[in-house]
Amino acid sequence: MVPTPKSGRRLLAVVCLLATVATGCGSSPTTTEEPPADAGGAATEQSGAPEAADGQDGAAALEQVYAEVEGLTGDERRRKLIELAADEGELNLYTSTNIDESGPITEAFEEATGLPVSLYRASSANLLQRVLQEAQAGFAGADVIMSNGPEMTIYNREGLLAPLNSPATEGNAVVFDTWAGTYLNVFIAAWNTDLVAPEDVPTSWEDVFSNYQGRMVFQLDDTDWFATLVNWYVEEEGMTEEEAIAMFKEGAAGNTPIDGHTTAAELLAAGEYAVASSLYQHRIPRLQAEGAPVAWEPAVEPLILRPNGIGIPVFTQRPASALLFTEFMLTDAQPMLAEFERTPALRTVEGGVPAEYDPIPVDLELLLDERENWESLYEEVVNASGTEPIEGD
What we know:
This protein has 14 helices and 12 strands. By secondary structure, the protein is of the alpha/beta class. It has 2 domains: 8-183 and 307-344, 3-Layer(aba) Sandwich (D-Maltodextrin-Binding Protein, domain 2); 185-305 and 358-383, Periplasmic binding protein-like II (D-Maltodextrin-Binding Protein, domain 2), CATH 3.40.190. Strands 1, 2, 3, 4, 5, 6, 7, 8, 9, 10, 11 and 12 form a 12-stranded mixed beta sheet that branches. Helix 3 runs antiparallel to helix 12. The longest helix is centred in the C-terminal third of the chain and has 20 residues, at 364-383. The chain is elongated. The termini are far apart.
């Protein structure tokens, strides 16, 4: 039997909450609707109703798979999983990752394993709505779910993710009981090296917020970055919450809010601003390769990260295939993500967060529970700028 969400009567409220969360994460490219049917090959939109469960408990079946491969690693483990998956049929992958990324990854998995995949791609909010509604109706749709961190947290809260027990999580920057990171949005401070002299490079967030009045651009909607830093200053630096928020407001005064990390990075590279307070780290190497005078190291710490992740639903009908794809995503696919200009969650992969840094993850539970409060506080920070926001991407 397919389990319904723990809070089935709150289904509508959960979906409405996600509309707010999706707005907070809207600058991530994984939240853009793209019809998967155009990708060809493995990337096809599923049509019609998902298959009904056959009474098999997916979580229990997954535990049996874990027992079958216990102690196995590397190629031996993969061969055993391929053997177990041989008769399971086509894997149903639900993802919010852009089709020009999830499509090639899926094709690489098919080539490596010989197993077929049906890929359904939607925005993170629409994906959440579909999964919750399918679970509510008693249908087993997805065998694997990949989405943004806030959505993965909701799936976990609703009891829809099975325990994840795999050696493939070793070295991953973000590992929970039921899901693990695929790639990271790492928030950094960056500067234009033509406009900021070496002796004036920021060495702390206090420097970022106090030394570049009128020359800094900051994000309009980075509530999660803001809340995480405020709490860090309270817990690690002994500030009160009011003092930490006041520091942000002082930093915003006279500076420019912008809606879009990509546009902010481009304006920084063009010399329109000297400093940007919360860019995504993966944007900078490409700009540097193009000759742009931008830098982010030595890093202003702490770095803040928000993960995207992968998990196996408790109602999976193809447990061996689901585990095999999950492990592929956490290992073989990690260099591919770097090629797509993502920051891989696997710390040992080139393009991942450098080993010398210890980023702080966004408290996803806190942001779900207290988002309205933190959005209100960050709105006060934005308003303190006294500057009209720039629309961007």
